[in-house]
């Protein structure tokens, strides 16, 4: 029956619609013999076949230059262009009069010279498909035709049990008119990990090593992944133990681990948990007192209470605001021409987000304040706006930019002015999508085409930053009144800074939305400098066209789409990125590549988190609690035999290097006094985790070493990529902790060392007070200076330095009584100003750096080290230096 139907279609008796309820057989079967009469479809069959043969790949005719004078769209996204290039021109690839003489048949069979080699056999089904299409007139794609709805791949999931086992996939294309066709021979396939599973051109999947991955089928603009699993152990089915799984997260993680035969690690110790969760939530080490109190607490709910407490600490809002500034691109270097004072726009951006994170404003509302931003408040005139901004930029401003209802600086960056830049930036920040490929051609691993990219850009054509033509009179009046009419450039900028400091109102640039009928000048950097009208329509990914010319602000449609329950990106992008901050890897990895060909390692887990996040009103603290309270997050980093190779299924904690800002603050905290640490926990002004953005040229943050942040991988916020922040170890990081002047100075000048070793009473002789300084260190410095003085022949200076050197050598030979440490039995434990015993000093050093008390062996080594040092101060400095240079200190585990 099906054979008869296909013949009738070829004769024009039936149309495709007649087959709406009939599944069409594979094309290699239908064209297996020479008597076929069916006419292949250009979009359904010809273009996918050319892709399967590699004709429209990068290395062949899909390159931007083409090959041999013939070009196809890369990955076959532009059907009209492909048809025109095949059928027209001085040397068309199609010969309708003599189909067999067509170059599209002659070259791939090597009947004529073909640099791409042999691609076709003259008696193959592929050859007959192309020939039959030419014989029927080489018809292109009609203007109205059914849309491809989806691919249905069978089986939906593959579970292997042994190496070299095979499974063959079947791929069915489903069209909007109800037609279905087995398109397996026309698909391209890839494996996401060929060490786990391989897939060949015939859709045969072969098991390799144990583990899990996906194989992916590509056809037209559809992409469909299929999970592949081969158990790591024989602990499957009834043999699998019953690990604790009290939360939905744990249940979904364990469900995946059960299929793999992977058993989760044991629970982390209390000390490990406290250090881990403190660093993750607040970007701050727990204090010694916090560690001791937590370890002494016997309550069963102490971890939950600690999570709640951490979410209320200033460090939470500071650290997660910094992260949101990373994602949204808060770069001072790209905002230098925004505002009056250099760096002020970056600080305003940070403050605006910080206020909302501290108040736990729902995530979608924060994004709405960015996406729909304009500079002026409702009913605020331009002059009133300038007055408000001028007042906020005064040295002792009482009002904060954070009180403004929206945050326009996101749109004011130098690298976010063109429509294409805005598409890329918004797709990255709020969709977690790498859409760069679609700017020029079809995305190779997703459904995004160049047409989709251009249609999406239509939402941003009327958003402008600069001088609103509608306020030119107010602007001119302000300039005239200030005597600035003739000033330009740097002179104007400097004068405006002075005027604002004097309490004057100066004109500001603003973000505004132009009228749909108003011509706009393209932003700087666009090739076309003439005035153009913005697009009248735009289209959301996978959605219908939107008449944006009829909307007061086209971005409102975009924001509504982001919030919609069926949005495939918005909530998932956020929860996936947050998850990655806690686990070192995302459920989708990389975290900004939510493409169809890069599916989640645990789809049900990602769906649960995203669905609940939306249902709970985009409550960010709910998400942090849900993750941190799970047993999955609280697992030990110590692997067992089943999970030691697991890197993507969350069966154990993964030790991860501290983020740049957290690492730098941790070094400062480890060397600070208890009082200084308490101040660091409450006052974020000097914390690295609370810096507003990448410092502009010449700008330095107080007490923050920007070189240190750079070598530890702080995000520069210049690219649309989460990889802009690096967590990779490097030699420079090791050198910094080993012997950089900044690190050595923090240890050398540590008041904590003085506090615990040398609390000298006022009546103590000067010689004893002098023991606070390390004679060995001073000796080396004076010896170096003396050597330089001798080389320079500075007689007077030589005499002074020799005298100083002799005094230092005498001091270094003083009896131990002049040192700081008393015997343990002599230490008054209840006197905060008194020296503490050596064991307690060592214990405190471990607590403040590693977040745990030392074991007996570590105490013994520490005491021996201090005994061997020239002075107790030198010994403790050395111990502190050693702890700062352990892997345990620089990683979160």
Name its key features:
893 residues, alpha+beta, 4-stranded mixed beta sheet, globular
Describe the 3D structure.
41% of the residues are buried. The strands form 6 sheets. The chain has a 4-stranded mixed sheet, with no helix packed on it. Strands 3-11-10-7 form a 4-stranded mixed sheet. It is globular. The chain has 893 residues and is of the alpha+beta class.
Topology of this protein?
Blueprint: H1 2-10, E1 23-24, H2 27-30, H3 42-52, H4 79-87, H5 103-106, H6 125-135, E2 148-154, E3 158-159, E4 166-168, E5 170-175, E6 180-182, E7 188-191, E8 197-199, E9 204-207, E10 211-219, E11 222-230, H7 248-260, H8 270-282, H9 288-296, H10 302-310, H11 314-328, H12 344-358, H13 363-371, H14 382-392, H15 409-412, H16 419-431, H17 450-457, E12 463-466, H18 472-482, H19 489-501, E13 510-513, E14 538-539, E15 545-546, H20 555-563, H21 570-583, H22 603-615, H23 620-628, E16 656-657, H24 660-670, H25 674-682, H26 706-711, H27 731-739, H28 741-748, H29 751-757, H30 766-769, H31 775-792, H32 795-812, H33 838-850, H34 856-868, H35 872-884, H36 887-890, E17 891-892
Parallel strand pairs: 1-6, 3-11
Antiparallel strand pairs: 2-5, 4-9, 5-6, 7-10, 8-9, 10-11, 12-13, 14-15, 16-17
Describe the structure concisely for a colleague:
With 893 residues, the chain is α+β, with helices and mostly antiparallel strands.
